């Protein structure tokens, strides 16, 4: 175990920055969604990429306690962005 206050190992730094890079990309996708909406062609391409080429039709169900149902993928994606739960799946 590392001592508190010591720097991360090379492997730990790699994991740390990989997580930040992925989170920053997810945050950027959310900003595009908020600025241009779900009908924007770039946002739709991102949604298709996330779902293996097809944007799911609604309704969308999730394992979220208290929020299990979304009318469509756009609503679900906006929820993830607002709540900063970028990697939440259905």
UniProtKB/TrEMBL annotation:
PANTHER family: ACROSIN-BINDING PROTEIN. It comes from Prunella himalayana. This is Acrosin-binding protein. Keywords: Cytoplasmic vesicle, Phosphoprotein, Signal. The keyword Zinc does not apply. InterPro entries: Proacrosin-bd. It is found in: Cytoplasmic vesicle, Secretory vesicle, Acrosome. GO terms for cellular component: acrosomal vesicle; nucleus. The keyword Phosphoprotein applies. Coiled coil: none annotated. Pfam families: PBP_sp32 (PF07222). The lineage of its organism: Eukaryota, Metazoa, Chordata, Craniata, Vertebrata. Acrosomal protein that maintains proacrosin (pro-ACR) as an enzymatically inactive zymogen in the acrosome. Involved also in the acrosome formation.
């Amino acid at each position: 175990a590392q001592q508190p206050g010591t720097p991360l190992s090379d492997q730990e730094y790699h994991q740390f920055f990989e997580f930040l890079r992925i989170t920053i990309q997810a945050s950027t996708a959310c900003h595009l969604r908020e600025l241009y909406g779900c009908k924007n062609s770039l946002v739709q391409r991102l949604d298709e990429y996330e779902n293996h080429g097809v944007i799911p039709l609604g309704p969308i169900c999730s394992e979220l306690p208290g929020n299990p149902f979304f009318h469509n993928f756009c609503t679900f994606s906006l929820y993830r962005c607002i709540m900063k739960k970028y990697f939440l799946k259905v």
